Amino acid sequence: MAVSIFEKGSKKVLNAWAFYDWANSVYSLVISSAVFPIFYGALFRLAEVEQVAVFGVMIARGPLISYLSSAAFVLIALATPLISGVADYMGNKKVFLKFFCYLGAVSCIALYWFSLEHIYLSLLCYFFGLVGSWLSIAIYNSYLPDIAYKDQQDRVSAKGFSMGYIGSVLLLLVNLAMVMRPEWFGITGTEESPAEMMAMRYSFITVGLWWILFSQYTFRHMPKGNKKQGERKQLILGGFNELKKVRLEISTQVFLRKYLWAFFIYSMAVQTILLIAAYFGEQEIDWGSDNQRTVGLIVSILLIQVVAMVGSIITGRLAERLNNISMLIVINGIWLLLCIYAYFVETPSDFYLAAAWVGLVMGSIQTLSRSTYSQNLPDTQDTTSYFSFYEVAEKVGIVIGTFIFGYIAQLTGSMRGAALFLGVFFLVGAVLLMRLKKYVVRA
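The chain above was modelled as a monomer; its predicted structure follows.
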């Protein structure tokens, strides 16, 4: 059997790294954003219930998925530095990448059996799908400094994003055809589970198989990982100690410390919206019929993806003329207006308009946030630890944001009030960013 020899910066290795985005991105688009939210809502409607008993408490479907996401990100936030530390000291990063890839993919396949009758097992499958996806991507991202030189990283990172977008959209279009025309694929249903629902169940299997199949190219050519020297006691706590070290260093840097607080506040709202948007659209918008709901939601998700790419390009152009902090303040203002607008959204046309604007500012705020952080890092070789800190801060924000959203939705009986409340985070984020303008040098 031929043995792949690792060469940093080689075209083969860079392509293998980028190709994992093609394999993995189908989860975030098909499961998190498009088909599963439609399936989840339809499951409750077919059962003619709006709430389900979980641990003795009746919880509505919207808050339930929000709480579950919050719980998953607690584990993700805790596991990220732990796994980072173990993988770095053992030099077996690829083992962890494989494990979380297979965990997420198998969990996706298991969603085929998702039911309200077996709600605990069903929610566990969704939980581990989320964990597998986000942790495998965290490991995947940490490979970038190992396999690419600094002058290659922007290009190969963009290539990964593009491949992920193309691959996920292709599979989503196939899944859409399955749902809209199940007879074309020989899919039949019953009164309890119509053909459209069965097609959605089969789409979960396609995601898992796609993820496993296409990740093999990455696994074949990616290096095992770079083993670092250190005391044995650092095996478990190494990642946490690195985060503690970075936190102490950031506390001495005024701009970076203040910027991270602003980012933490507005990012928790951004990420919550991206995770919950499809569930909001499925539950709160008057689509007319189930068929129109399915098509409308998937079209909305595709619209967000396309406009997000345009938003990223526009942001890149504007960043050459304007400073990042001023642009982030404006974008936070647009997000605030979108949260207010979401409270009044009722028709599909209203939702399409909101989706277009979400796509535009989604790509912009993610691009600018990361680049502003990167540009203002101190002169250090330890950029991996700094970005690990950044990612953990983002995950902790998601925990708080999704929990608050679920709690308010459960308290008010509507996701509209919860969406409106998220606007407060953008307002606070904008105010904190305004305090940074006097420090602007490179941002």
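The mean pLDDT is 84.
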